[in-house]
């Protein structure tokens, strides 16, 4: 769809078709929010055709990305053209990490903008509740991981990615910075952990019964 000089695309294929017509264009990807920026950073590594084993350890288990193989034309645009990652909510720390990842991959003109800072205040919890949810989060994330690294390696994301411990939910998905036990299925004390909500892409890890 074209409106007021902008072309709205629903897939990477549509983006690449637009570049064939006119390579001197700016590309804007739109999403709802980010916190630590892990999903966006993983997507950039994927677009760079980098082997997943070479990604930073904390990004290798990211599954909610587009695995479509980019064309040489699109990769070239990432390296030389203007690409904007636009969000409604975000954090300065996450923005810096995403842009640093882009530079390390040779994507010099990839930048991040967002409208509002995510609430920096985490959910109020008693030490007992925090400890329980953190323990559940670590076990659930380990269950969903293909590589199954040591349990302790999941502590940083056990209360939401980056330790944000937020309680945000959208009509379409549960953000990764929401408390992990709320959205991540798995096992805890040898029993199925069925979360209150289910993050997109994690249904395959759900255990019932």
Characterise the protein shown here.
By secondary structure, the chain is an alpha/beta fold. The relative contact order is 0.14. The protein has helices spanning 12-21, 38-47, 72-80, 92-104, 127-144, 180-183, and strands spanning 2-3, 6-7, 27-33, 83-90, 110-117, 186-188, 191-193. The N and C termini lie far apart (46 Å). Helix 2 packs parallel to helix 4 (92-104). Helix content is 31%, strand content 16%. Strand 1 (2-3) and strand 2 form a beta hairpin.
List the helices and strands and how they pair.
Elements: E1 2-3, E2 6-7, H1 12-21, E3 27-33, H2 38-47, H3 72-80, E4 83-90, H4 92-104, E5 110-117, H5 127-144, H6 180-183, E6 186-188, E7 191-193
Parallel strand pairs: 3-4, 4-5
Antiparallel strand pairs: 1-2, 6-7
Helix pairs in contact: 2-4
Class inferred from helices and paired strands = alpha/beta
N- to C-terminal distance = 46 Å
The secondary-structure element order is EEHEHHEHEHHEE
Total tally of structural domains? 2
Q: Assign a percent range to the helix content.
A: 25-40%
Shape: elongated
Q: In which order are the strands of the major sheet placed?
A: 3-4-5
Query: Mean of the pLDDT scores?
Result: 90
Segments where pLDDT lies below 50 for 5+ residues?
none
- Strand percent estimate: 15-25%
Number of strands: 7
Main beta sheet: strand number and arrangement? 3 strands, parallel
User: Given the structure, what is the number of helices?
Assistant: 6
**Radius of gyration (Å):** 18 Å
């Amino acid at each position: 769809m074209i409106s007021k000089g902008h072309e709205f695309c629903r897939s990477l294929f549509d983006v690449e078709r637009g570049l064939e017509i006119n390579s001197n264009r700016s590309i804007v990807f739109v999403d709802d929010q980010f916190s630590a920026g892990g999903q966006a950073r993983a997507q950039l590594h994927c677009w760079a055709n980098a082997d997943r084993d070479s990604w930073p350890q904390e990004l290798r288990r990211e599954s909610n990305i587009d695995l479509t193989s980019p064309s040489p034309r699109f990769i070239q645009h990432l390296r030389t053209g203007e690409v904007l990652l636009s969000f409604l909510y975000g954090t300065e720390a996450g923005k810096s990490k995403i842009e640093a990842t882009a530079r390390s991959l040779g994507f010099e003109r990839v930048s991040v903008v967002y409208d509002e800072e995510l609430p920096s205040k985490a959910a109020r919890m008693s030490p007992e509740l925090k400890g329980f949810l953190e323990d559940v989060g670590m076990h659930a994330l380990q269950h969903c991981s293909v590589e199954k690294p040591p349990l302790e390696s999941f502590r940083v994301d056990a209360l939401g990615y980056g330790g944000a411990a937020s309680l945000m939910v959208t009509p379409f998905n549960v953000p990764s910075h929401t408390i992990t036990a709320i959205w991540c299925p798995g096992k805890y004390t040898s029993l199925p952990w069925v979360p209150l909500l289910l993050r997109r892409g994690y249904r395959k890890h759900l255990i019932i019964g």
